[in-house]
Specification:
By secondary structure, the chain is an alpha/beta fold. It has three domains: 91 residues, 2-Layer Sandwich (Alpha-Beta Plaits); 77 residues, 2-Layer Sandwich (VC0802-like); 208 residues, HUPs (Rossmann fold), CATH 3.40.50.620. Helices cover 40% and strands 21% of the residues. It contains 14 helices and 15 strands. The chain binds adenosine-5'-triphosphate and magnesium ion. Adenosine-5'-triphosphate binds next to helix 5, strand 11 and helix 12.
Length: 398
């Protein structure tokens, strides 16, 4: 008889010095929070690894490999985890270990009939165990060979590996699921993500969360020019990002009147940049109010007219908080790859308009100068726009 448990491996934080404990505690707390809907679980650390076990012995999520895959996926989504495995835990002597390993190898083979080579790898945490790890590997390898004639040993490039761990209990597993690495969320402060309905900004949020940031998000909504469906899409994207970054507030700014004023009273070729400068100022005010230490955008150099170096400079100068742009050097395809990997892509490409496509200029300035922006803003009461924007904000808890 065995029970299923999960083994999760920590990455970069094991390189931390004195404050390593803080990082590890945060990681365990984040795991407990992420797994809160999977029953009464015991999350604990042993050396540089984390174990997750069912406390009560009747948790349906731990009954089969299929059911556990959902928990495993949630574990790998927690930043700071490099990989995780579903592991069989059992007690007993070496005879018991051999029996369990053979049974396990047979099951792996039943699922992967094309496999014909394997190796055994073992760790001995219990130093009073009569065999060392080399002997464990050899003897277990031998019984597996004896019981499953189709297999041969290949230590360099096996189709699968039987990992054995002998401690107070015994453990056997074979596969690992890759995690999203990074640092535990909450170890790098909080950032305000400018979240549109596109592909880029959810990826930008994911990337900053992977460096340990908590997130809040702000979305500029121009109803009815952007529909309720567009807003729902942003809410959905915020949920996907929060699967990695944890609890988040989404601030929805009512941007309609501001955009209409600009459209009427400002230069067409500078419209996008003027609009972005106001967005940044509203975002900064919200950020300070809600204790965020930076703004985050999905900008990538040269991708569109408003993302040239000059345009970024002119947008950036209206705020004092640092603006993090994790996609600045990525090309679109690389961003799309990440978007797919985090499960945001299908939502991002749903065809609802965003406010920038509605009020877009036909011939935007790609290399704006200061004189252009002064001219574009001379008939606008920017200060009032920013105040109105902040005041007209709806909060949605994600
Ligand atoms: P995305 O794919 O994230 O929409 P994009 O390639 O469409 O980006 P832009 O529309 O120029 O590029 O926006 C650049 C960045 O500005 C976005 O990544 C996002 O951070 C922010 N942004 C744009 N529109 C909005 C909006 N309506 N609400 C909040 N943030 C926005
Ligand atoms: Mg966009």
């Amino acid at each position: 008889m065995y029970t299923n448990v999960i083994l999760a491996r920590m990455g970069e934080i094991t390189l931390k010095g004195l404050n390593r404990g803080t990082f590890e505690n945060k990681l365990k707390a984040n795991l407990r929070y992420r797994l809160r809907n999977f029953g009464n679980l015991y999350v604990f650390q042993s050396q540089s690894r984390i174990w997750i076990e069912d406390r009560e012995g009747n948790n349906p999520y731990f009954e089969s490999e299929e059911a556990a895959s959902e928990v495993l996926k949630a574990v790998t989504q927690v930043f700071g985890i490099v990989s995780a495995s579903l592991v069989r835990k059992f007690n007993g002597d070496f005879e018991e270990i051999k029996k369990n390993c053979v049974e396990y190898a047979k099951e792996v083979l039943a699922k992967n009939p094309e496999y014909n080579s394997f190796k055994v790898d073992s760790r001995r945490g219990n130093k009073s165990f009569p065999l060392n790890s080399m002997q464990i590997c050899c003897e277990v390898g031998e019984v597996i060979l004896d019981s499953i004639p189709q297999l041969h040993v290949d230590v360099k490039n096996p189709d699968f590996t039987v990992f054995i761990e002998v401690r107070d209990d015994n453990y056997v597993y074979s596969e690992s699921v890759m995690g999203h690495r990074g640092l535990p969320v909450g170890t790098s402060g909080k950032g305000m993500l400018l979240l549109s309905g596109g592909i880029d900004s959810p990826v930008a949020g994911y990337m900053m969360a992977s460096r340990g940031m908590n997130l809040d998000a702000v979305y500029f909504h121009s109803y009815p020019y952007t529909s309720d469906k567009a807003k729902d899409k942003v809410i959905e994207l915020a949920k996907i990002v929060s699967g990695f970054s944890g609890r988040m507030n989404l601030y929805v700014v009512n941007f309609t009147q501001i955009q209409l004023d600009m459209y009427k009273n400002s230069r067409q070729d500078m419209l996008t940049i003027t609009m972005r400068r106001v967005m940044f100022q509203i975002a900064e005010k919200l950020a300070r109010k809600h204790h965020c230490g930076c703004l985050i955008t999905g900008e990538s150099l040269g991708q569109v007219a408003s993302q040239t170096m000059e345009a970024i400079d002119i947008t950036n100068e209206v705020v004092k908080l640092p603006v993090f742009r994790p996609l600045i050097g990525l090309d679109k395809e690389a961003t799309c790859d990440i978007s797919r990997r985090i499960g945001a892509f299908e939502t991002s490409i749903l065809p609802y308009e965003d406010c920038c496509t509605v009020f877009v200029a036909k011939h935007p300035r790609t290399h704006p100068k200061h004189a252009d922006i002064e001219d574009a803003e001379k008939n606008l009461n920017i200060e009032q726009m920013v105040i109105d924007g902040v005041n007209g904000t709806e909060v949605i808890e994600i």
